[in-house]
Amino acid sequence: MRKLICALALATLSLSQSGCIKSMLVNGQIASTRKAAGAFDTIGDYDLARAAASAGLVQFEGMHQLAPDNEDALFMLAKGWVGYGYAFAEDDYEAAVDAMSESLAQYHQQRAIMAYDRALFYGLELLNRHADGFDTAQRDVETLRPWLEKNFTNAEDAEILFWTGYAWLARVNIDKENVRQVSRVWIGVEMLERANALDPAYMRYGASLAIAAYHSRSGMADTAKAKAIFEDVIAKTQRKALLALVNYASRYGCLKQDRSLYEKTLQEVVNAQDPDPTNRLQNAVAKRRARRYLGKSRMSDCGFD
After folding, report:
1. Both 235 and 260 in a single domain?
2. N or C, which end of the chain is more exposed by having fewer CB within 10 Å?
3. In sequence order, which residues have a C-beta less than 8 Å from that of residue 174 and are 6 or more positions away?
4. Each residue of 53-81: b (16+ CB within 10 Å) or e?
5. How many domains does the chain have?
6. Does the residue 99 lie in any domain?
7. Residue 39: inside a domain, yes or no?
8. pLDDT tens for residues 254-283?
9. Does 36 map to a domain?
């Protein structure tokens, strides 16, 4: 009997240690992958990046199942789904719209919505792990802003605020007919404003760029502020972050019907020759958008007949 008890104890200990080792290996792999993720930005081959992004998301979904408490996995999923939604699903949606394929456009629109919803799911889960009270704080600006200022105080906090806030705005932008989503766009703006205050240079001044695009949404918005922000970001990135140029042209230039700014800026993007090797993927996406926005359909949408 003593031998049996000892054997059972050893077996239990072995299984426990095995579980711990597996957990350590998974957590270590997730941490290493997050640290190495910057290498993905250097890929300039759009089709290769699409395949890699799809595979990477599936991998991280699996890792999250194995390590549900790992915050690196939550972060990578929030970031990854935003990137997939913007760079690939929205690109397919825009191409379908220009091809006047309503059914295909609706299909790709739903893909983009799904991507942003999933990013928000993981981003909000991570925010709630960082600080309690988001559900109450999001009542209005007067409650959300102080909640963000109180609970997110380090430059590192800008990362998850940026990706969650960006997902929030992108979700609204791709589904403008959803009145409830549109009425709550200010929540994403507040997250981005806080991210910008904590680390303005993060993602090549990405929060500022998103805020400028928000202020270019209509003639009722603060277009003067949008112009100032766009030009500041373009100057700070030395015109090497091509998405800043694309957004300046397609948002502000289109809204103000400034054809010269629109065409000149987008043509600059098309002609750019690998201005930043560390940012090749975003610049490849920017070039695709620039070529599309110089097409007859998009030019006409801006009133440039």
Report:
1. yes
2. N
3. 85, 90, 93, 109, 112, 113, 116
4. beebbeebeebbeebeebbbbbbbbbbbb
5. 2
6. yes
7. no
8. 999 999 999 999 999 999 999 999 999 999
9. no
Asked whether residue 49 falls in the same domain as residue 157, the answer is yes
pTM for the model stands at: 0.90
Residues whose CB falls within 8 Å of the CB of residue 48, separated by 6 or more in sequence, listed in order:
none
Kindly give the confidence (pLDDT) of every residue in the chain, 305 residues in length, as a single tens digit, with 9 standing for 90 and above: 555 455 544 444 444 455 555 566 578 778 777 777 788 899 999 999 999 999 999 988 998 999 999 999 999 999 999 999 999 999 999 999 999 999 999 999 999 999 999 999 999 999 999 999 999 999 999 999 999 999 999 999 999 999 999 999 999 999 999 998 899 999 999 999 999 999 999 999 999 999 999 999 877 788 999 999 999 999 999 999 999 999 999 999 999 999 999 999 999 999 999 999 999 999 999 999 999 999 999 999 999 98
CATH classification at residue 57: 1.25.40.920
Q: What residues contact 195, with CB distance under 8 A and at least 6 apart?
A: 157, 158, 159, 161, 162, 165, 202, 207
Residues 232, 156 share a domain: no
d(CA 185, CA 142): 15
Residues 6+ apart with CB under 8 A from 5: none
Query: 185 and 65 in one domain?
Result: yes
Residues 84 and 151 in one domain: yes
How far is the C-alpha of 254 from the C-alpha of 65, rounded, in Å? 44
Exposure string for 136-153, b = 16+ CB within 10 A, e = fewer: ebbeeeeebeebbeebbe
Indicate whether 51 and 190 sit together in one domain. Answer: yes
Q: What is the extent of the structural domain holding 160?
A: 44-194
Tens digit of pLDDT for each residue in 50-79? 999 999 999 889 989 999 999 999 999 999
The DSSP secondary-structure symbol of 100 reads: T
Residue 251 lies in a domain: yes
Domain boundary residue, one of 194, 213, 235: 194
